[in-house]
Amino acid sequence: MEMTLYLVRLGEISLKGQNRDFFERKLKDNIKYKLRPYRSRFTKQKGRLFIEVDAAAPEELVRHAISTSFGVVGFSKALKCAKNMEAVSKAAATLTSRPSFLDGVQTFKVETVRADKKFPMQSYDISGQLGYEILTANPQLKVNVRQPDRILHVEIRDHAYLYASPEPGPGGLPVGTAGRGMLMLSGGIDSPVAAYRMAKRGLRQEAVYFHAYPYTSDEAKEKVVSLAKILSPYCSGITLHVVPFTDVQLHIKTHSHEEENTLLMRACMMRIANALAKKRNCLAIVTGESLSQVASQTLESLAFTNSMSDLPVFRPLVGMDKGEIVVTSRMIGTYETSILPYEDCCTIFSPKHPLVRPEKDRLTEVYDSMGIEALLDQAIEDAEVFAL
């Protein structure tokens, strides 16, 4: 079976000690899962992962599988040849004669990494010889060692590997190396970015969305399902729990003052997320909250909602402003879906003048007096589950 070779550069994983194999295995498993049903083979060397993929696999699929896998800092299609200069020169001639290397290129350079120090030529000499051969075959080109249009990379390892135009990867650590968390996913811009940032630190995530039908439409739910699908490659798969929240919100509306509604609603969401997280063996909750962005995200408000969970609550966006969050949402492809005009349950029941500096003890008493725990349990029981 004909196979195509990809060279993958690893980042933070390479700094790990005795448990580096664990991180490398997770990365391999995550990429292999995305490449199904095509056959793939993986080999590793220090700082590198080599992936051979069935040549029938669409290149776009392979590129997407690797580029959305945390732990990867760069990758490229590569040629592998015997570890001698005759074979290396032949491979270099093949690679640099391709339109993908030459199109729009006026200058180039050769960079060599001689990982095998027993190879008889020095890195500088290898680069010089190959550069001369490329110039001879392509007299229209010039060498520019500072800002070349194209770089031919050569790595001398167990074999020689040659590649050009490496693409960037997302960095971070492979998903699944840092345990499991429960993401509170809304239809907005922030929570998908929070999911991305926590996945980048290796956290595997499930998600919970609170749906207040008929006050929020089925289109609003489908919007969140679409966001979860966009996040799924980054998260190596995601399970979405859609929790019916209408009865809870109506109960809050009739058992509290209007200005308290938003915070009591957030408290109930946190309670449900906490219970669902434990049920699904998650050890933390993830939210898209940013300090002081809205009334429910002041320090006093966060202290109150935090008190509703006995699990750690991660807020990876807490110190970011909206502009920074939007940049990331555009990069990961969630922005255009997030801004679709379907209101979620938060906006439907928002008071005109919400509490900004709540007294935690007093608001806790109000929460306890509502007698709402049975409704929360029922909401969890009635949740729809989507494996995405």
CATH architectural category of the largest domain: 3-Layer(aba) Sandwich
End-to-end Cα distance: 31 Å
Give me the strand/helix succession.
EHEEHEHHEHEEEEEHEHEHHEHEHHHHHE
Largest sheet: 9 strands, mixed
Enter the CATH topology name of the largest domain: Rossmann fold
Shape: elongated
Helical residues, percent = 40-55%
| Binned strand content | 15-25%
Can you count the helices? 15
Number of domains: 2
State the CATH superfamily name of the largest domain.
Answer: HUPs
**Average pLDDT score:** 94
Overall strand count = 15
Structure characterization notes:
It is a single chain. Helix content is 41%, strand content 21%. With 388 residues, it is an alpha/beta fold. It has two domains: 3-168, VC0802-like; 180-387, Rossmann fold (3-Layer(aba) Sandwich), CATH 3.40.50.620. Strands 1, 2, 3, 4, 5, 6, 7, 8 and 9 form a nine-stranded mixed beta sheet that branches. A six-stranded mixed beta sheet has the order 14-13-10-11-12-15, sandwiched between helices. The longest helix is centred in the C-terminal third of the chain and has 19 residues, at 261-279.
What's the SSE blueprint?
Elements: E1 3-10, H1 20-35, E2 40-45, E3 48-54, H2 59-67, E4 72-81, H3 85-96, H4 99-102, E5 107-114, H5 123-137, E6 142-143, E7 150-156, E8 160-164, E9 167-168, E10 180-184, H6 190-199, E11 204-211, H7 218-235, E12 239-244, H8 246-254, H9 261-279, E13 285-286, H10 299-306, E14 313-314, H11 322-332, H12 335-338, H13 345-348, H14 360-369, H15 373-381, E15 384-387
Parallel strand pairs: 5-6, 5-7, 10-11, 10-13, 11-12, 13-14
Antiparallel strand pairs: 1-3, 1-4, 2-3, 4-8, 4-9, 7-8, 12-15
Helix pairs in contact: 1-2, 3-5, 6-7, 6-11, 8-9, 9-10, 9-15, 10-14
